[in-house]
Amino acid sequence: MRAKLSIGAEGEIALPRREAEALGLAGGGEAELVSARGAFALVTPVRDDAPRAWFAGSLAALTVAEVVHFVFANLRTGVLLLAFGGPEAGDAPEQPERLRRKSIYFRDGQVVFASSSDPADRLGPVLRRAGLVEAAALDRCSGLVGSGRPLGQVLVDEGLLSSGQLYDGIALQVKEILLGAFVEPAGTFAFLEGPTEEQNAVRLGERTRDLLLQGLKRVEEAERLSRELGGREVVLSRRAEPAAPPAADEAALLAAVDGVRSLPAAALEAGLGLLDALRAATALVGEGVLTAPAPPPAAEEEIVIEVEPPAAGQPRRPPGPFDTYRRIFKRVHAAFSAANPSAHERLNSYFDRLPPKQRALFDGVRVGEDGEVDVARVLANVSQTGAYKAAAARARSLEAIEDLLSFALFEVKNCLPREQAEALLREVGKMQVGKA
Question: How far is the C-alpha of 122 from the C-alpha of 118, rounded, in Å?
Answer without folding.
Answer: 7
